[in-house]
Each structure stands twice: as C-alpha cells, then as structure tokens.
From TrEMBL:
Residues covered by the Damage-control phosphatase ARMT1-like metal-binding domain: 32-371
Keyword Metal-binding listed: yes
Organism: Streptomyces fagopyri
GO biological process per UniProt: DNA damage response
PANTHER family for the chain: DAMAGE-CONTROL PHOSPHATASE ARMT1
Reactions accelerated catalytically: beta-D-fructose 1-phosphate + H2O = D-fructose + phosphate; beta-D-fructose 6-phosphate = dihydroxyacetone + D-glyceraldehyde 3-phosphate
Source domain of life: Bacteria
Protein family: Belongs to the damage-control phosphatase family. Sugar phosphate phosphatase III subfamily.
Protein name per the record: DUF89 family protein
InterPro entries noted in UniProt: ARMT-1-like_metal-bd_sf, ARMT1, ARMT1-like_metal-bd
Keywords: Hydrolase, Manganese, Metal-binding
Length: 397
C-alpha cells in the first residue's frame, strides 16, 4: 500500500488564482448566466410542478441572476454543512463574485430546494433530471455501444482493457449539463489524447482495490461499469468501490438510483453486455463492487479539503480514478494554472495513486507538454479547453 503523500499545499496550487464567475465573456460566466437559466427552463418543462414549485423556480432564476447567495432554510439538514463548506464566507455576495466551483455547486443544491427534493411532500426524492438520464439509456447510440461489446469479447484481454479504458474516458463526453450550453462545438471526434498515461494507469491494476469516482450516469456510467467488470472478472482488481453522488447534481451526475438503472439496462441486454450486467449484479451482491455516496462528493470544494474518513478510504485504494471534468477541477483545484504546471504537484496531497480520465470541458488543465499546448492554441485558440473535443489520462503514482 502506498504511503500517504505529504498533505502540504504544493506551491503551484497556492499561487494560481482561483477561477471566479465574474469575467465577462468567460466560460464560468456563461455557465452561471446562460446554462443555469436554460436548465431551470428544462426542468420546468419536464415536470408538471404546481404553483409553489413554479414560484420557487422563478425565485431561483431571479436570485441567481441578480441576487446574492443566501443560506439554506433553517430546517435544512445540511444547512450547517454548507456554512462550514464556505457559506459563512460567501453568503451575502453575488453568485458571480465567489469561486465558480462554489456558486455552480450551490446552484444545484438550491435547484433541488426549489423543486422540493428534500422536504416532505409529493416531490420529495424525485430526481428532476431523471427523464433526461433515462432517455440517454434508450438511444440507438447506447444500443450500438452495447452490441459492439460482442465483437470486443473476441479480442485479447489487453486489447479489451485498452478499449474499455478509452470507452470510459470518451464516455465522459456524455454530459447533459454540457449540452445545455455553447460547450460542444459539434466537431467532437476521438482526437489524440493531450496527455496519455494509460499504460501507467494500467500498471496500477495489480489485484488490489480500485476506487472509481464516477461522473455522469447513462452513457458514461455504462462504460465505467463495463471497465469495472473487466477488471474484476480478469482479477486485475480484487475489489472496486464506485463513488456516486448522494443526490442529483450537475444534471447527469450518477446517483445510486442511476447505478441501478444502468445495471438494469445491462442485464436486459443480450450477448456480452448482458453477461457483464449479470456479473456486475453479482459483484454488488457479494461485496466485490460497493457503491459509496459520501456527502463530500457534492461539496463545492477541491479534494485537497476532503474530510479524514474519505482521505482514509482513498489511502486504502491501490488506485483511485477520478472521472470527468468536475472531478478534475476538484482534484487539481479550480484555478488558472499555466497548462504546463506538473500534475504531480497539484495532486501531491492526494493520499494514494490517483488518475484522471477526463474530456476537457472547462478552463482548468495542468500537466501539458509545452509543445502540445502551443499546437492546441495554434489550432483552436483556447476553445480546446472547454469544447469537449479533447481528452486526457493523467496519473500520479
Ligand atoms: O464533470 P463533467 O460532467 O465532465 O462536466 C461538468 C462540467 O463541464 O459542466 C459544467 C458546465 O455545465 C462545468 O462547469 C463542469 O466542469
């Protein structure tokens, strides 16, 4: 088992400015000013909420555009948690003036309030994003991806592993929040990875424990589960822990209910996909695959601030895979780093080997070779950072 790394903040982290939402024309500002109102409209259209919920959605729309951040209601079970997570510092300020990670995360928490997710009543526990997540599982594209597994099953295990790893990586493009905005530029193809440390990652599959910190449900979670099945059934890992969100978040982020939906989708399939689904189901029932929904998974903070119990959990893993853009921002810190800042420095605090599998959908990136950065900028100015057209695999042992 690796020794816990030094938790002191590396200089790179402390020096780079935190990303805020206040710069006109910036990506964060477009998320707060355009994606969030679009999301409210979408959720409103998807459910016949009554007048009280409609009014609450109107209030959120207005507050998030021109108001200030306000504490959660007195009765909210997590009111104090949000104070500790930074609320006491940020409440009373504009949504645009606090760290982007903070205001964006708080928006999702407030959206759940507006739709009555946490309070007793007819809408308690009803995931406002569920219709979109379910629709994803039912597309011809999702079907084609499952059918393709039959052919993959014929290939040598090492090839299968590489394909499944890339499937899990590119599955991260399946992000419903991202599709609400100007994000994808429609030219997304599987371009060469801007950093490819896939081999280093695979060398860490040595029969121990894998933590996979999931991102989106549907067409990202299915390939994540297929990768886990491959690793468990080939004894590449002995045990896998899948971290999901304790409540709906960032539109399509996976919750336990989404894991069950994905497993049902797989077990209902024929051929290799169905077989995988049944193996995963058994792995969950016999404890080789466990699902965790830690409250910190929805925290508006970088993982450098993780609580001790979660730190111990990651310290006990032989490798932790962080999926997706948001987890990347939280892993390295949501800051304006020079793109060539070493990944190892920004993740030195992490208590064990850690890997990022991410398509690039926000400004943050570290660990690029200077030539790669120059070529990317020459080709598409800074759009490569946010367009979802590029991806990376980075590892810190
Ligand atoms: O974590 P994911 O699903 O890969 O991407 C989430 C994300 O791209 O969506 C937001 C915009 O809607 C970004 O701020 C955020 O990082």
């Amino acid at each position: 088992m690796p020794e816990p790394a030094d938790s002191a903040e590396p200089p790179a982290r402390a020096d780079a400015p935190v990303i805020l939402g206040d710069v006109p024309g910036s990506f964060p500002r477009s998320v707060l000013a355009e994606r969030h109102p679009a999301l409210i409209r979408k959720v409103r259209d998807a459910f016949p909420y009554g007048p009280d919920r409609q009014r609450a959605l109107d209030a959120l729309l207005k507050n998030s555009a021109e108001g200030v951040l306000e504490p959660l209601d007195a009765g909210a079970a997590d009111r104090e948690r949000w104070e500790v997570w930074g609320g006491s510092e940020h409440f009373g300020r504009s949504w645009f003036d606090v760290p982007f990670l903070w205001s964006e995360s708080y928006f999702y928490r407030r959206l759940l309030d507006a739709v009555g997710y946490f309070v007793p009543g007819p809408w308690q526990g009803v995931d406002p994003f569920r219709p979109f997540k379910l629709a994803e599982l039912d597309t011809p594209e999702a079907e084609a991806e499952l059918v393709a597994l039959d052919e993959l099953a014929e290939r040598p295990a090492a090839d299968r592993e590489e394909a499944l790893l890339l499937g899990s990586l590119w599955g991260n493009r399946a992000d419903l929040g991202f599709r609400l905005g100007a994000g994808g530029d429609g030219t997304a193809t599987d371009s060469p990875l801007v950093v490819d440390e896939g081999e280093a990652l695979r060398s860490l599959f040595a029969g121990g424990t894998l933590c996979l910190v999931a991102d989106n449900s549907g067409r990202e979670l299915i390939p994540d589960l297929l990768l886990i099945d491959h690793l468990l059934s080939g004894r590449r890992v002995e045990r896998a822990v899948l971290h999901v969100k304790p409540y709906p978040y960032y539109v399509s982020d996976a919750t336990t209910a989404d894991v069950v939906d994905a497993l049902r989708r797989l077990t209902a399939a024929t051929g290799a996909a169905g077989a995988s689904g049944h193996r995963l189901w058994s792995a969950m029932t016999d404890g080789r695959l466990t699902v965790r929904a830690h409250p910190f998974s929805c925290a508006p903070l970088p993982y450098a601030d993780m609580p001790d119990d979660l730190r111990r959990e990651f310290a006990g893993a032989d490798v932790t895979i962080m999926k997706g853009d948001l987890n990347y921002r939280r892993l390295v810190g949501d800051r304006h780093y020079p793109a060539t800042t070493p990944f190892a420095g920004t993740t030195a605090y992490f208590p064990g080997p850690v890997a990022a599998l991410r398509t690039l959908k926000s400004d943050v990136v570290v660990g690029l070779d200077p030539r790669t950065e120059t070529a990317l900028v020459a080709d598409r100015d800074q759009r490569w950072r946010t367009g979802g057209t590029h991806a990376l695999i980075q590892v810190r042992r």
